[in-house]
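DM from R.C. (forwarded with permission)

"hey, sorry to bug you on a friday — could you get me a structure for this? deadline for the figure draft is monday and I only need the backbone to look sensible"
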Amino acid sequence: MDARIQQIFRDVLDDRKLEVTSDLGPANTPTWDSFAHVKLIMALEDEYKLSFTMDEVAEAATAGDFIKALRARGIDVE
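My reply, with the result:
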């Protein structure tokens, strides 16, 4: 996983040992609530200097969804 993505998720979800996988989401991460979701969006936008569309935000339910949205914009994240 991209080190920047990993660090953003660890910081926002307040878990230094968190391993980001594509299926990581609110259903399997207790600290991922609606406020954390907004903070993830803002942190990713800030880090990658972009603004997600309303459709991208509405469709983003997991870390994999965010990664897919970044890749669709030509951002190389592993």
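R.C.: lifesaver. The mean pLDDT is 95.
me: no worries. The helical segments are 3-12, 34-48, 54-59, 63-72.
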